[in-house]
Amino acid sequence: MCNARPLYLHKKVTCPIHASILYIPSSSSSTSTSTKPNPLSTLKFLSSNRTTDPILSFFRKIPMATANGHSPPASRWSLHGMTALVTGGTRGIGSATVEELAGLGAKVHTCSRNEPELNECLQQWKAKGFSVSGSVCDVSSASEREKLVHEVASLYNGALNILVNNVGTNVRKPTTEYSTEEYLRLMSVNLESSYHLCQLAHPLLKQSGAGSVVFVSSVGGVLHIGSGSIYGLSKGAINQLTKNLACEWAKDNIRTNCVAPWYTRTSLVEHFWVLQLLEKKDFLQQIVARTPLQRIGEPNEVSSLVGFLCMPAASYITGQVISVDGGMTVNGFNPPINLD
Ligand SMILES: NC(=O)c1ccc[n+]([C@@H]2O[C@H](COP(=O)([O-])OP(=O)(O)OC[C@H]3O[C@@H](n4cnc5c(N)ncnc54)[C@H](OP(=O)(O)O)[C@@H]3O)[C@@H](O)[C@H]2O)c1
């Protein structure tokens, strides 16, 4: 609609909704002979910022999910002044995410189960000039989750801009071989912990005025990748939770998105490589062959998307599950013929 140029219109204004150019009648130079009300005169009101009509005002209000209201352009690409909680921040994608968010200006709190490793990481981040704190916490324990969020609430005066639910684990087996204990443990670490942390953090995210939740799921929640059915279903549930919360919490100005990595070079898959390389040497080659970009991912190639999704620049993105996979999930059939 904004690109149309009716014959009787002359004066140029910017459409407030699509930011393209409109032509509206000029009071002094209109050549229109029509006596009908001009539908685009509405837009003249909108662009003039003078209307008090609540419905017309609605079209003018384009809220920006920023830490402190409207921001100048540079701060749309920054997390300066924001607070974040990243679970499982001492290794892999979690560690890269802590550094990404802190490097973009956020104050970050993280957690893991291994105290010496956590303290070592905290020292390294301090040396790099990042503002990062940490707690020892096993996110599969409800009471430890409550303690963690309580600590975050006191640290950040009851307001949290960013929650990254990163922790996840896996045990690969045929479905018929999983025990009930394995089912419960994987579902607890991969799904229940994130669900409960969202519930606990909701008042803090709402209080911030511009909250953002990012889940770290997996392409295994979208496709069968031979990583075991419990991993697949727990990650698939996270993908759906992303969509539910995006709709449910939009009224609180909380956005919810999800990143879904393919094989990424971290400690989670390291031991798996060694085993596979010893027992089945072509496994890595098969992964690379299935991946259009012809390699596995690096943790900071996942954390860069997490960082973007938390920025004011991503203020209209919510409910999305985005694969970080070198193109693997769009590679349907790879025939052994060269089309070049
Ligand atoms: N790497 C991949 O190829 C890949 C692919 C798809 C999706 N993902 C997903 O990406 C996320 C991160 O994986 P990653 O590969 O970075 O894992 P990782 O290298 O094993 O790192 C996991 C981090 O989480 C912490 N952690 C593990 N269990 C925890 C618990 N119960 N409570 C608190 N902290 C815990 C670990 O520290 P402690 O052990 O000291 O607690 C560590 O800091 C997971 O959700 C995973 O499913 C990974």
From TrEMBL:
NADP as UniProt keyword: yes
GO MF annotations in UniProt: oxidoreductase activity
UniProt entry keywords in alphabetical sequence: NADP, Oxidoreductase
Keyword Oxidoreductase listed: yes
Domain of life of the native organism: Eukaryota
Similarity field: Belongs to the short-chain dehydrogenases/reductases (SDR) family. SDR65C subfamily.
Protein name listed in UniProt: Uncharacterized protein
Source species of the chain: Linum tenue
Organism lineage string: Eukaryota, Viridiplantae, Streptophyta, Embryophyta, Tracheophyta
